[in-house]
Write a structure and sequence with these properties.
The structure is a homotetramer. Chain A contains 9 helices and no strands. By secondary structure, chain A is mostly helical. The first copy, chain A, has one domain. In chain A, helix 3 runs antiparallel to helix 5, helix 5 runs parallel beside helix 8 and helix 7 runs antiparallel to helix 8. The longest helix of chain A has 29 residues. Chain A starts with a helix and ends with a helix. Helices cover 76% and strands 0% of the residues of chain A. At the A-B interface, helix 1, helix 3, helix 4 and helix 5 of A face helix 1, helix 2 and helix 9 of B.
Chain lengths: 191, 191, 191, 191
């Protein structure tokens, strides 16, 4: 089974997820700059989620590039990842309207966490299909970044009930960790 | 006529169908966990429909993979399938807001049923175009799963007026039946 | 310049146009079948527009299949077509909420008419680029169907102020004219 | 790393951006032509933004066509451009509802300006990756049009507080400048 349509379908779903979040920017009644003030936390949550989903697309791109073929199990592991990512617009809106409130911050973290777990499952399903010594398995390596992200999200969720700002800092931190170009992985993949 | 754009267009439409359903998750006013409680049935209906549409994408992927060329008739059989699938977000919302109410449950089943029929028509149109002895016809076989699904949906619709929970159980059951990997079909297709 | 991305972008825009129309199906408050009654004209308008946009995708598919290369002028002729098609969801909603009211029926016809004109311009731009004796020009022929559609829409718009039902009949009639498979064109294209 | 999925993902996001803007056309209650009057500025803002986003897709298409391979840095420069473009629907709505009001006009210009800057960064990142003497660098040349656009937007933003109509004229003017076919660039690219 070729991977072309899996990539195309995932691109479509991720493109829509990243774009419909902007529908949450309710246009204010007034024409004054002050009428935009309530949108600032919404914008911050939007940018965080945009970058978060962008990272997933990026990593998905790298992962599938290293894949040669796929099977039914991989199709479902991929759909499972898309299911969690599809909930990002909802938790982003709730977070944006209630910045630093414990439950919205915690739920946001739960969706990030489960997306991370789903990505890990997808990566492992691909490794099983391609073999432990495949280029894909070598390129993925021990996936330290992925595991660290999941660990940090697991920490951030309960911390939302202590101080939600710490959780938000962790979300931003994990995102920045991924933004820093990781040329080693890219080089391994390009071999 | 090549099948590339038919696949791309279907991927686009299905990706949007599966994603805009999430727009029905109206962000609650409150920041408490209790304010999410009315969303639980909406979430359940969403997950069911997400998996349902995901199955169609999966099967569509398999079906078209086995196809070599297409014609105008196939384009329309495909659009006919997309028309019914495009109504899934609407019936999902109505179901999610009225879980276990007879009419929403019945209408949900009708859309699932007509999607199943449309898929059957598309598959048969492809078989006619490729010939009875084509790889596509062999791979599709007698399509027991497809016919069973249609039969079960036909049963579930009137049952909604007896006990809507039975209908919902049938919907979940049919979905699970498709989720269990069916390696035989895949193997036949890969030959 | 290759035509791949023009096709992909058009597929994306048309897929979204055809799908977001379904967002106009506002989920009713009640769970009774009677609460769906106001949606019947909306559903009828939706199906008409779904088939209409589907025809455009179909024809666009055929047209571009016959094209070999494109240029900047063709890109803009294509965007011009997409602009008019993108207004279909709006006029469909207005029509669905005011079935047989003169202005909504007339405006619906105007958007259909201008889409038809834009398609004609796109086809001619492609013919100019490929040459009068190209396979594309031969396949397109005198485009009787396209010209007839534009003529009928031009007739239907003012008729909306006499009797809007006649205009609606014309819209349905033109759509049916396109649905009937036109095997000659397809055969010419496949050569 | 191949550029196929970068193009596909960008096509998806841009197709959605250009299409969801139409969701801002709130269907009026009445069926009279007068009930559409409040939509005229919304329509004007929509057409301007449709053409603006269309130009970006067009230029993106040309730019990536000249690119041979991409890297992680280019992926992020591309996402950065998509982030600003994704805010176009919001500022278009605000502008459409408050035509010629200073803040909406200025904010619209800021998003156009930052999109222009992001496009410049993407183009430069591609030039660095391909080398100063690459076909891409030669085709891009000194990018006079791009720099002029950014300069004019920088001028238009503060002018919104003097006379917002002047700013709007500048936005329309820059758009027209791009619409005029620039056959030289195309020819260089086609070599």
């Amino acid at each position: 089974m070729t991977k072309g349509r899996l990539e195309a379908f995932s691109d479509g779903v991720i493109a829509i997820i990243i774009t419909i979040m902007v529908l949450e920017f309710k246009v204010p009644r007034g024409a004054e700059i002050a009428s935009l003030r309530p949108l600032i936390p919404v914008l911050l949550a939007y940018i965080l989620s945009f970058v978060f989903v962008g990272i997933y697309w990026n990593n998905h791109h790298h992962l599938l590039q290293a894949a040669r073929t796929i099977n039914g199990r991989i199709l479902w592991a991929n759909s499972h990842l898309l299911l969690w990512l599809s909930l990002v617009p909802f938790v982003t809106s709730w977070l944006g309207q209630n910045l630093f409130a414990p439950w919205p911050v915690a739920l946001y973290g739960i969706v990030l966490l489960l997306s991370g777990v789903a990505y890990y499952v997808l990566a492992q399903t691909l490794v099983v299909h391609h073999g432990k010594d495949s280029a894909l398995a070598v390129a993925l390596g021990r996936d330290v970044k992925g595991k660290t992200s999941v660990a940090l999200y697991t920490l951030a969720v309960p911390l939302a009930f202590v101080d939600a700002r710490i959780s938000c800092l962790i979300y931003v931190g994990v995102t920045l960790m991924w933004l820093i170009p990781d040329s080693r992985i890219e080089e391994t993949l390009q071999k």
